[in-house]
Every structure is written in C-alpha cells, then in structure tokens.
Write a structure and sequence with these properties.
three-stranded antiparallel sheet, alpha+beta, about 25% helix
Length: about 80
Amino acid sequence: MSSEIRPAPWIDAAFIENQRRFSAEALARYQGQHIAWSWDGTQILAADADRRALDQKLREAGIDPLAVIHDFVDDPNLSCLG
C-alpha cells in the first residue's frame, strides 16, 4: 500500500458556471446515477448507478477517479422521505 499523498487540484473557477449550462434534459439521461464531471464542468466523463462501478469505468478509460468531481443525479420520481 502506498503512503504517497497526492494533492488534489483545485476545481476550475468556472466549474459551476459551466455545469449550469447542462440543461435538465441533458442531465435527465443520468437520473439515479453517479456521474463524474471534468474539473472544469464542461463534460460528464462517465456515469453508473453504482459508485464503485463508476470508478472502475474511469480507471478503464485511463482517468484517475480522484481527478474528477463526483456527483449524483437524483431521480425526480423517487422520494427520499420514508
């Protein structure tokens, strides 16, 4: 096990602005899934309903799972109230 600690880069200052450019329709295809945003918020790099599977997809694509912004897109048809 490596004890090397890698500093995480800062999120791009325009991340929120770029992320907000995604329409509700564009995000709808990711409902109920974990997604990985690029640091600048201009693209979704991968998605999966399972967070570990998402990280595996990223690794297979040659992307370090620690070098993305993880998010979750709620399904508007489901309630978190129990």
